[in-house]
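Study this pair:
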Amino acid sequence: MVTQYGIKLGVHLMTNQFGNIVAKVCESLLRRGPLTLQLIVRFTELTPQQVKSSLLILIQHNCVQAFSLEQQDGLEDGPKANTQYLALFNNILHRMRFSKFLKIVSSEFDECKELLEGLLQHGRLTLKQMVEREREKSSKKDGNCEDIVQENLLKLLAARYVERCPIHEPVLATPVKDETTAKRRGAKSSKRNEESETIEQRVLGAAAPMDAQRFSIITNTGSNVSRETSVGEKRKYDALELDRESAVEEEEVVLLRANFEEFMCRLRHKACIENVRTRLDDGASIVLRAMLEAVRSLEKRVKTEKSVPLSLNTIFEEVMNSEEGRGMTLDRVRASLVQLGCSSSARGTDESYSIDLKKIVELAQNDEVESIVLKRYGRNAYKMFRLLSKTGCLVETEKISDTTFVEKKEAPKMLFKLWSDGYLHMEDFSS
C-alpha cells in the first residue's frame, strides 16, 4: 500500500521528468490501483489519445505494467481478457537512484557506463538501437563499434545489471473463491502465502521471463535488422502498443532494460557491509562481503531475509580471493562469523553458516533513525529513543527518565513530541 506521502513524491518525480499530463495518469493509477484505459480516461478527464500516449511513455520507462485479467462472461462466450494498467511505485522511486546505479557500474565496468546510461535515459532499447546510439557518439568504424557494444552488453548481462524486458501483457486468471478449493491447497503456510500475494506480485511474476532467457541475448544484430525501425520511431513503438496485434508483431524484437533489482541488492549489500564495519570491525565486514559475493547469483529477492548456507571452507576461500582478506586465518574468519551472529549447522564434518540480513538491515535502520532523532530533538530525546529502541517493548515514563537521567518534568514533554511526530508508540494503562 502506497502512502499519501509516497504518492506525492511519485507524482512530483513524474511531473518533473515527463510533464503534467503523464503525471496525472500516473497519479490516477497510484491512487486507484489497476485501471482499464476507459477508466483512466474517465478519472483523469483527459482525451483517449493523451492517456494512450502517457501510458506508452510510462511503459517505456518501466513505470507501468500492462496485464490482462481473464473474466468469465458465461459458458457460450468463454473467458474474456480485460487489459488493465498497473503503476510500479518502486520503479518510479528508483529513478532517484540512477546516479547510484551508474556509480556501481562505473566502479566495476567503467567502459559499460555509457551503455547503461542509455538504458536509464530511454527506459528500453534493442541491441540495434544501442549500436546506433554508440555510432552517433563515436567516430569508430561500424564493425568495431558494434563489437564494442556487444562486448559491453554481455558484461552487463553476465553481472545481471541488464535484463530482457518482461512480457508485454501477461494474462492472469481471476481467482475462484471456493472453500473446497482452498482446503486442497495443502499446508497452512503455503495457503497464507497465496492469499497474501498482491496483484503487483502476481503481475510481475507472470511477466518475468525465465532466468535462462532473462539474462541472455543473440548478439548478431544483422539477423534482426529487417524487423527494426529507426531509433526515434522505435523508442515510441517499442513501448509496447496497447492492443494485442502490436504485441504479436513485437515478439521477435528483444528489448533490454536496466535490472533495478540487482542494483538494489548491491546497494543493500553495501549498506550492510558499511554498517558492520562501523558497528563491529573490518574483519567482520570482509567476511560479510565475501559471503554476499558468494551467494549473489542465488538471491531471488531484493529483501532476502537470510542468505543461502555456505560451508566454512567456501567462505574462507572467498575471503582469500580479496586482497584485504588474505591476511585472515581460518580461526579469525570463524570468530567473525560468531560476531556477525551467523546461524550454523553441521552437515557431516562440514560447518555451514548463513547470515541474518534482515537483522543487519534493521540495526542499520535503527542507527539511521537514532541519528535523525539526535539532530532534530537533541541528546536527551536521543537517549530516551535509543533506550526504547534497544528494549523493544513498552516502558513507563518514570523508568525512562530514571534510566536516561533526563529530568522528570522534561521527559514526558519530549516523549510526547516524539510520539506526535510518529517516532514512538504510546499506550495509556491508567484506566
Residues 176-195, 221-251 have pLDDT under 50 and may be disordered. The chain is about 60% helix and 10% strand. The beta strands are 64-72, 79-87, 162-164, 171-173, 256-258, 310-311, 343-347, 350-354. The longest helix spans residues 357-377.
